[in-house]
Structures are given as structure tokens and as C-alpha cells.
Amino acid sequence: MKNLKLTKFNIFTILLIPFVWIYELSVVAPILGSVAAAFPDASTFQLQLIVIMPFFASIPMSVVAGKLAEKFDKKNLILVGLAIYGVAGMLPFLAQTMSQILIARLITGIGVGLVLPLPNALIAEHFTGTQRQRMLGLATGVANIANVLDSIAVGFILLYGWRYPFLCFAICLVIMAIAIFGLPKSAPNKQAVVDVVDNHLASKSIPKIVYALVGFMTINWMFFAFNIENMALFMTTESIGLPWMIGIAVCLPGGASIISGAIFPNFYNKTKNYLVFLSIAIFAIGYVTLYCAHDFAVQSVANILIGLGSGMLAPYILNLTSQKVEPAHRDAAYGLVTSGIHMGFLLAPFVQLIMATISGNESFRFLYGASAAILIVCTIVLGLCVN
After folding, report:
1. What is the mean pLDDT for each group of 10 consecutive residues in the chain (387 residues)?
2. 238 lies in a domain?
3. Cα–Cα–Cα angle for 309, 337, 206, nearest 5°?
4. Is residue 208 situated within a structural domain?
5. Which residue range is the domain that position 80 belongs to?
6. Secondary structure, 3-state, 188-247
7. What is the number of structural domains in the chain?
8. CA 125 to each of CA 1, 184, 260: distance values in angstroms, whole numbers, following the listed order
9. d(CA 103, CA 330)
């Protein structure tokens, strides 16, 4: 941990950055129906690309950001990322063609990728022990707060037309302005790297466990995305609730994840080796409940359980990264591990398509049942391992 005393404003600013972690998804996903009406010749695949296009750039850029943080001040990298994120995010407001929208969305992903891993690296740099666990949990919670607020706000803004929700990306520029004054400088700690090398404690490459954590993070967010990305269509096809209830339903998993992030340190300290087992068990129960849901109340319970289970795993993975990776490789490791967030969202529709093709069943209820079965198997295996 650096010998730099952070002010409350510094801490507030660090926790403000994760507000835009999944902003590019939560702002755009609800408007696809309106975009489809504005571009009637656009294919379903093109419409899906509007949502996932940033991930094609953000995933490799997250890795690059981790590497750049070893040579440049993290504060400057975050400011550049937020600038690209905000400006490119608003560009579709001016777009006249589908291609222009897709190009703007791809550029947006560059900014997203620069911003994604660095707040966690700052937290690992300035905090240890329970404080680090709490900060990582709060960072995940802030990201989900944004998801909840976006889901509500975009529904109202969409009344003015499909272009206007893209102006919400101006929030990135607002956060950038705050970060200029509130984000602590974080130059590469070259001395720490030299000390580690001199004592023959540093390996030349990133530890293999990091790649396992990338996979863990990806799978966690992929299962979370199965619910989020299909919720509106599931409620419509199954005639669950009224149209205005969709926004509430979308908020619930994110709201539950906020609670998970807030209570993570206490829950982790009490459960230790059982945390992953309990989290996946809650995740599994959530999908079992969702599979059985035929009314809004039951679906709401399912969404809360899914949010609680998934929301506990994300800070656990981030905290484990800080514990298992030496300081010399920590920035690069966070770049890799946090890229798993967007990899999960990106893979979800393709994995869903593969499951439907193999099974011959495209229903959402089958997807939720299959997800429940997989998570139950994982729970049983983990239960045997921890005993």
C-alpha cells in the first residue's frame, strides 16, 4: 500500500469510476426496439451488434490498460478513457446510418476498456485486508447502482426518441471532470518492481491462476447476462406482469448485487472457504425459481436471488486477484480479470444460441432450467470439495 493518505473526496472519486463499468450496456439494451423501428431494414444481428459492439474493443483494451498502467499514471489513463467513452458514446445521437452507429459503438469500447480495470488496481494499491474487501465490494455495488438507475431513466428518456438515451453518456465527461480534481495520482511503482526482482520473488510472466480467475469472472457474468439480456422478452412471451413492470424487473438483480457488494466483507470473513459454495447455491436457487416463475412476484424473488449470488462472486474474484498476484504484475492481472466482465456479456448470446441449437429448444424457460442444472452441479461439486 502506498504511503499516501487519501481524503474522503479521493475515495469517493475512486468509487465513482465504476459507475460506468457496464454503462454502455445498460443505456443501449432497452432502446433496441425503437432503433429497429427507425431502421426497418436492419437485421436482428445488426441490432444485437449495437449492444455488444463495444465489447469487441473493451476486452482487448482492458488487457492493454493493465499493461499501460505499468508505464503511465493510472489517473491519466482513466481520464483519457472517460473522454473517449463520453464523446464516442454520444456520437450515435448524430448518426444517420446503422454503420455509423456501429462504428461509434466500437470506438466507445476503447474508452470502456481503459476505464474498466484501473479502479480495482487503485483500490489494491491503496488498501489492504478488510478495507480492500469493502472497497472492492462497494465498487461492484456502484456499477450495479448505475445499471438500476439507467434502466429507470432510459425508459423515460426514450419517450423523446431513440437518439436521446445516447446523450446519457455525457455522464462520463462529468465523472472525468470530478476525477481531474479528486482522483489521486498513481505513477507506476517502479521501485516495488525493482525490489521484487532483486529478491528473486517475481516471475517473468503473469501467474497462471490469473487466467483461471478470468474464466471464473467470465462465467459469473455470462450466467448473470442470461437473465438480464432476456428478461424483457421472457416477460413479454410468458405474459408476466405489465409492460411498466419490466423496468422494475431489470432493476432487481442489480439492486440485489448492490446489497451483496456492501455486505461482502462481513460475509466473507464469516464464511471464508464456503463463500463460493454459498454464492453459487444462491445463484442456482435463483435460476430454479426463475424456471418455475409464472407471475411477477415469483420472478422478482428469482431476480433478487440471482443478483445476490452473482454479486457476491465478483468482489471475491477481485479480492482473490489482489491476494494471489504480486505487486509487479497486479495492474496487468486486473486488466485481464476485469475483462471477464465484458467477456461474459459478449459470450452470453452466442452460448445461448449454441444451447438452443444443440437442444432444439429456443425457449427462455429451457435456458433458465439448463442454467439452474449447471449451477446445481457446480454447487454439489463445491460442497464435496470444501468438506
Report:
1. 73 87 77 82 77 88 84 90 95 93 94 86 82 80 75 78 91 94 78 44 69 92 86 80 72 78 79 87 96 93 92 86 80 81 85 90 92 95 80
2. yes
3. 140
4. yes
5. 8-386
6. CCHHHHHHHHHCCCCCCCCCHHHHHHHHHHHHHHHHHHHHHCCHHHHHHHCCCCCCCHHH
7. 1
8. 5, 11, 23
9. 32
